[in-house]
Amino acid sequence: MLEHLIEIVLPVVISVCELMGIFVVAVSTLRAFALYCAGWFTHMRGNIKFELADGLATSLEFKMAAEILKTVLVRDLNELMVLGAVILLRALLSLLIHFEMRGEHGNIAEK
Questions:
Q1: What is the pLDDT of residue 22?
Q2: Which distant-in-sequence residues (6+ apart) come within 8 Å of 36 by Cβ?
Q3: How are the residues of the chain apportioned to helix, strand and coil, as percentages rounded to the nearest 5?
Q4: Phi/psi zone of residue 43: left (φ > 0), alpha (ψ -120 to 50 degrees), beta?
Q5: Gap between the Cα atoms of 66 and 94, Å rounded
Q6: What DSSP state is assigned to residue 43?
Q7: Is the alpha carbon torsion for 84, 16, 97, 56 positive or negative?
Q8: Which residues contact 21 (CB under 8 A, 6 or more apart)?
Q9: Alpha-carbon torsion, ordered 90, 91, 93, 98, to 10 deg
Q10: The pLDDT of residue 20
Q11: Contact indicator for 36, 47 with CB cutoff of 8 Å
Q12: What is the mean pLDDT of each run of 10 residues along the chain (111 residues)?
């Protein structure tokens, strides 16, 4: 009974997490582009890289949440290995983005 309910509800929750990640990427990209365009008119450079990297890191968190939830639905070892590889790659991307954000934030503090 509970397993059947999980099989019905979990794909919807996973899809919502994926969509939230896509939405965050789209909004942060548009926001960074708006900051870039505003810089042309005001001649003041905003922190475009930081804004975009923050949005990408947040979206990766939503995507990783969806991947973790997918582990509940895994039926065989091959699926689990592929899912583990995807989670590992997304975690590495997230770490790289956070490292870049920390470096960019330090550069701004020095200026």
A1: 96
A2: 46, 48
A3: 90, 0, 10
A4: left
A5: 15
A6: -
A7: positive
A8: 59, 60, 61, 62, 63, 66
A9: 140
A10: 97
A11: no
A12: 88 96 96 90 80 90 90 84 88 87 67 53
